[in-house]
Amino acid sequence: MSISASGEVAGRAVQRVPVDLGERSYEVVIGQGVLDDPSAWRSAVTDGTAMVVTNTTVAALFLKRLEQTLLRRHRLVHSVVLPDGEQHKDWTTLSQIFDALLQWQCDRDTTIYALGGGVVGDMAGFAAACFMRGVSYVQLPTTLLAQVDSSVGGKTAINHPLGKNMIGAFHQPRIVVCDIDTLSTLPDRELRAGLAEIIKYGPIADWAFFEWLERHAENLLARQPRALMHAVQRSCEIKAEVVARDEREGGLRAILNFGHTFGHAIEAGVGFGAWLHGEAVAAGMVLAASLSERMGLADGEVSVRLVKLLARCELPIRAPALPVERYLQLMRLDKKARGGDIRFTLLDGRGRAVVRSANDALVREVLADLATGS
Amino acid sequence: MSISASGEVAGRAVQRVPVDLGERSYEVVIGQGVLDDPSAWRSAVTDGTAMVVTNTTVAALFLKRLEQTLLRRHRLVHSVVLPDGEQHKDWTTLSQIFDALLQWQCDRDTTIYALGGGVVGDMAGFAAACFMRGVSYVQLPTTLLAQVDSSVGGKTAINHPLGKNMIGAFHQPRIVVCDIDTLSTLPDRELRAGLAEIIKYGPIADWAFFEWLERHAENLLARQPRALMHAVQRSCEIKAEVVARDEREGGLRAILNFGHTFGHAIEAGVGFGAWLHGEAVAAGMVLAASLSERMGLADGEVSVRLVKLLARCELPIRAPALPVERYLQLMRLDKKARGGDIRFTLLDGRGRAVVRSANDALVREVLADLATGS
Question: What is the pLDDT of residues B255-288, one digit of tens each?
């Protein structure tokens, strides 16, 4: 169980969620304005050069502030600003990071700071994993999705034309710093996509948290800092606990993929970028919950309440109406598939998940019934 | 201490050197004809798909044989043949491996087999480190240099236009299989370059082995299998012991870089490819031994005997006559340099090494006296 510590820094509430991974342990620090306050990040970062990796959109909002903060910890602070968007999560863009590191003569004592959403975090983290066979990095997620999911756990990757996240590494950050204030500039659609990943944690790990979300959905949509703090904290606690027990996705960690087997197929089926990841996961969770129900693992009320909550958050609850066989084909290509066998994360009661294969006929039935959206 | 086990497989002598790295432990299997005999490789390789990575030169010699051997262990065996040469150790060539893996729908149960020299091993190993965030791989080194050095220890990398081996990973193989018979087709110059890395182990770790090499240099140059077996085995034992104590090059492992700080500068200074790595290391060891002597760490006889042995092996003992300041500039760019401080592996008596900074004036003196070759 991950026990969070509460505290105050400069009069503001700061939550600290430990990620317990032996010598690779670190903290997720959650608070308002923590981007400006390096004293809130108690972590073992060397005094070598800092290299900030961000994108054009985030740079305009937060880069100067972060550089000011980092100059209180590092003698030299450089930055590299990447183009914004999942379509740039490839080798060409990654090599911009390596070029910058080498042009500035960075060495093994360099710390990379990933300032941005999941794409920036994935690329900066993978660059840190590979540069001189591994340097330290810090995650500073500025989207809700990155704060509650991608920035915690050390998964890094780039895409390959033949598959998403196919080339990557497990490389844990030294610390994750979630500044809740950065969410105030997030477009509504991205905020909702982040809520999908938050909602995910309820059915798979903590039904009481799901019920809290049912009571506080409107507060979250209105971006109330207290509600966001709690949602981010509880999500990170659950993720930290799962990752601590299965760092390299040998088994348990796959429960975090609830909605993702269907979701990845949706993203690929409509063409990457058309649906946000969180949107695809939302519709994917509806399919996975229905499959769980048809396999006798979860009761019907779980599906009903999940659909209701997702709809209140204006998330898609109907997967697109692609041919059923196309879904199956895409799911067999997923990197969690083994020997062509599709693996689903299914709900096993309330607040519990299992990873299973499913009967193809049942999967076809679920898709035929529910993948009817636009 | 790494204790090797001797045994026989199909009537032939097989040596097994353990590399003790906890859950990442593996064996180096050394013998004649072991490429054809999977029973000699007792290792936990999954029964998923096999992907052989090799180059055009090695494919012509050994690929068919290896594929036959692997079909006794794997249901599906694919291969990807890369262009030959260090100049291809880059992202473009690496992506050929990823393309092949994805085109053949390889998954996390795939095992990659690196058949070739150090370049193939580095690229196949790095591809294994990154593909789906890490799959298993097996090293099948076919050059003397790869058998005694690069295939053991899990260092993998590709080059960047601004530096060698700048992008890579620590990723241990499941087993290393050294078939001494493959050395019979090796060009003389490459055999000698491999001898340089073998000779390196004596002064830094085992003076008795150095004296054995003094007695058996001609047998090695004549490619006597018994002599080669012993030289490969003892080299792998020493490397295994160092790697077991310092897997990620935190300290001790740097003693393996004896001759390499100067050597890398030689390779870069003359333009990569003009000197073989082992040749540059040979001349680099002469410089490093002289520096050790001038710093009062080693006696003059060590230098004299080292130069004599290298010369008998027809290895260069004079570094090229580049400007002294050019050497210093290149060495400051080395990825072992920290904050501009050049680190040297120096001899500390006989069979012992230390890693130290050195006075720039002394380094200049050594270069001015000894870097006078063509």
Answer: 999 999 999 999 999 987 899 999 999 999 999 9
Of A108, A109, A169, the CB nearest to B133: A169
Q: Which chain B residues touch A105 with a CB distance below 8 Å?
A: 333
Q: Are residues B167 and B205 in the same domain?
A: no
Distance between CA atoms of residues A142 and A147, nearest Å? 7
* Residue B267: C-alpha distances to residues A108, B195, B247, B260 (Å): 22, 18, 26, 10
Q: Which of these, A310, A315, A303, A318, lies nearest to A367 by C-alpha position?
A: A318
Reduced to 3 states, what is the DSSP secondary structure of residue A299? coil
**A98/B169 CB distance under 8 A:** no
Residue with structure tokens 């996961």? A281
Contact yes or no for B166 and A132 at CB 8 A:
yes
State the total domains in chain A: 2
Q: Residues in chain A, how many? A: 374
Contacts of B131 in chain A (CB under 8 A): 166-167
> Domain end: A185, A209, A241, which one?
A185
Nearest CA in chain A to B157: A133
B48–A169 C-beta distance less than 8 A: no
Taking an 8 Å cut-off on Cβ atoms, the answer to whether A99 and B162 are in contact is: yes
pLDDT in tens, A300-352: 999 999 999 999 999 999 999 999 999 999 998 776 666 668 999 999 999 99
